[in-house]
Amino acid sequence: MTTGTPIRLQKYLARAGGLSRRKCADLIAAGGIQVNGQVVREPYFRLLLGVDEVRSEGVLLRPARPVYYKFYKPPQFLSAMGDDGPTISSLLPPDMTRVFPVGRLDFDAEGLLLLMNDGDLSNLLLHPRYHVEKEYQVRLKPCPSRGQLRRLEAGVELDGRMTKPSTWELLERLDGGQQGSIRVVLTEGRKNQIKRMAELVHSHVRSLLRERFGPIRLGHMKPGQFKKLAPGELAALQRLADQARQDLAGVEEDDTEGDDD
Length: 261
What we know:
Elements: E1 6-8, H1 9-17, H2 21-29, E2 34-35, E3 38-39, E4 46-48, E5 54-56, E6 59-60, E7 68-73, E8 100-101, E9 110-116, H3 119-126, E10 134-141, H4 146-154, E11 157-158, E12 161-162, E13 167-174, E14 179-186, H5 193-199, E15 204-213, E16 216-217, E17 226-228, H6 231-248
Parallel strand pairs: 9-15
Antiparallel strand pairs: 1-4, 2-3, 2-5, 5-6, 7-9, 7-17, 8-9, 10-14, 10-15, 11-12, 13-14, 15-16
Helix pairs in contact: 1-2
């Protein structure tokens, strides 16, 4: 956006601080934001980018230059930034402290995480009304039958509501047929969803690797490695977000979903 472009205060804060839209709205409602020295409590208040001055507790807030990475999260790391526990922060250079993960992978899971400082784009990608595909390679023991896989694909009840249709494709039988390598594609993100769905057919996750998030693929990256998104990857992600904006036009904002593995 260029200087003088109108932008909603809630959106401005998401870009400046990487917060969810809901958290930004709460901060505004609590009177914690001033625009040109005046407290503003309306999240849909429009300001002019680069012209109006936005502060929180006296600190000037400016949207950071957006950066976008893909990262191979190893197992046994938390999908969080900070020094509390074995987080992915310890695997990143110090100048990447302002990025945050888009969604999460479970502590024992590995694979693709998107890292960015664009709260607006992150919120769109995780919005519960706009479901971005996430693809995983999962090893299950015992190997589910084809009938059990079809049951999971059609949807099962978790937390009192049915899961959305998904893909559970048997790729290979391992360990004399005792384990199965399964390709799973989800279009929603509930906490520990794959593990909990597998348990409903009496199977257990032995390993879980996320290979794709929307149009972005892990490719040949190694654990702990990160790369800036290539121009083509970023363009594909932006097209997905643009479609989400169109679909969500006029729809009240909602919280994002939780873990998506």
